[in-house]
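Retro notes - structure team

What went well: the batch runner handled both jobs without manual restarts.
What didn't: labels got mixed up in the shared folder, which is why I'm recording both outputs here explicitly, each with its sequence directly above its tokens.

Job 1
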Amino acid sequence: MVKLQEGNASVKIDQGELVSFKVDAHEYIHQKGSPGWRSADTEMFPIIGPVNETDYRVQVPKGGNAIQDQHGILRELQYQLVSQNDTNAVFRKEYSAGTMIANSKFPEKSTKKWQIWPYSFSFQKSFSLNENKLEITFTVSGERDMPFMLGYHPAFKLHIDQPLIVSDNGQITLDEVLAVGNRAFQVENCSSITLQDKKELTIETEGFGHFMCWTEVRNMVCIEPISFYPYSVAQRDLNSGFRYLKDSEEIFKVMLKV
């Protein structure tokens, strides 16, 4: 467990997963074991969304079809700790093109035993704690012209029954998010959202462009920065949401501000 501390703020990171962000003893992150979701955060890469409607195949320029399960192959890889100090920590995942990766959803929730991606990439996740702000930076590098989508999937603990999710697009109630179900509530063209709970938390982003919100319970809500909303197109056209790597690395940021 990696622990960061700055004044009244503390962070706990378990193998790259943000499992606690506290300020003045107030916990903002959904706790594992609580109803709603078995995780606290994860990344969606290089695919966002379900691909079961296309037999878990996604069209890519290199090699035709790639086999991916929900939200992509990255979540099956293990983070390695690169560096840490009192207020910063850096984790990294590496993937070599064509490597077969076991699918943890098989056989209960998927028909595919293996996932495979025809591109090599490096994915870095960095944490920086500064007073009452936690900055999370994602750095993507790899083969030029590699297609990808990126989503960050944190879950926030709720302390009241009727919180509000507020953006420039308006207010969203928890009931509205629950009503959408597994498709997740789309928040287009948005770089900042404030969760108005017992205490407010603002999620600011760079590089993503959109959000989606999801939950199935009243004690947590996922407010997820995304580069592409997967239900905006037919699943067979999921590849239309790809971005493509250039010569330099791509950087995305999420700031949790109290």
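Job 2
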Amino acid sequence: MQLGTRWSLGATPPAGLPEVVLIALQAVEGDLAALPDDTSGWRWTLTWLEGNPVIELDDGTVIRFDPKEDSATITQPAVVIDDEDDWI
């Protein structure tokens, strides 16, 4: 059984994560660094699902590892745009 953990955005991730997951984490953190939003209080949450890491950021971004493909998928939360002309 593997236990999950939490760590702050920008801090060193836990040991044992696959290299492609670390690359995905760096990509997300790099994108967030370019935004004007205050992310200083955001944290990552690592959960192990059937032996594979699933990592979620406080904003809803999720990184999942696929061991068969040795790949990581980044899913970002949908952005709702309030557009008054959406009925046209």
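One thing worth noting from job 2: The CA atoms of residues 59 and 69 lie 26 Å apart.
We'll revisit the folder naming next retro.
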